[in-house]
Amino acid sequence: MDKDLLYNFYKGKVSIEEGQRVKAWVEASDENERAFYRERKIFDALMLNNPLPVKKTSFFNFTHYKKIEWLKIAMAVILTFLLSYFYQEYKAGLDSVAMSTISVPEGQRTNVTLPDGSNVWLNACTTIQYPTSFNSRERFVILKGEAYFDVKKNKSRPFIVHTDAYSIEVLGTKFNVDAYPETEKFETTLMHGSVKVTLKADSSQTVILKPDHKLSLEKGRFVMTKVEDYNPYRWKEGLICFSDESFPNIMKDFEKYYGVKIVIENKNVLQINFTGKFRQTDGIDYALRILQKNIDFQYEKDNEKQIIYIK
């Protein structure tokens, strides 16, 4: 965590978004929490340890100096005890910001206009939270799932997307974020503009993403690759596109887009890959029949339990 940001936090001179960053960092691990309090002690010492000149010829000055030093120690002790209360109160203030929450169920997608006029397309099984009104300094949203953003330009108010793994800062741009926590897949793809991506667990890991590039999080490190195929991002148009994708991963996407559970009993299909497109509105049966033209399998449906068995 950046020390300047921490020290501004201790002084109470941070924005809501910066406070959210500190809060998320502290809560990420016990090690971060210990570092938070350790830095606070150093901060207190820097603020209080400013000794006054001492004149040895004057007993009054020496006594006065000792009183000041004892006063500093007492203040440091008081500040240490107040730190926990200060942090909890600050966190409560952040949590009190009025937030809107939108959750998209399986098999659905939706478009949302944010308070600043930015547009967001939300994929199935996605949740987004954002303030009911952005303040004059910043704009931020909290995302779990996949979303495509078309952000209104405003240089004086950066736009921040918080995910479980990292934060994305933009001024005005178009980009896709894939951040489903349950899959541990975190990807950001930039179509236009520029974004800065910062890893939550290690704020020193920051990457400026260029257009037509994708940033993935692999084993705690960022990996950037050039985007050659934009079909996978056409989900907001109702298209489900695959490029040399494995059969199991295709079934996982079908579960998300069609709101069903799929059980693969045929082990022969596990190593087969497929390239193609489906319209979500055509339904699961049509999609499976198209797959059957290329892959040898049968399927049975349990309509009562909403389960499909691949045989």
TrEMBL record:
InterPro entries: FecR (IPR006860), FecR_C (IPR032508), Ferrdict_sens_TM (IPR012373). Pfam families: FecR (PF04773), FecR_C (PF16344). GO terms for molecular function: sigma factor antagonist activity. Coiled coil: none annotated. It comes from the Bacteria. Residues 240-308 form the Protein FecR C-terminal domain. Residues 101-196 form the FecR protein domain. This is FecR protein domain-containing protein.
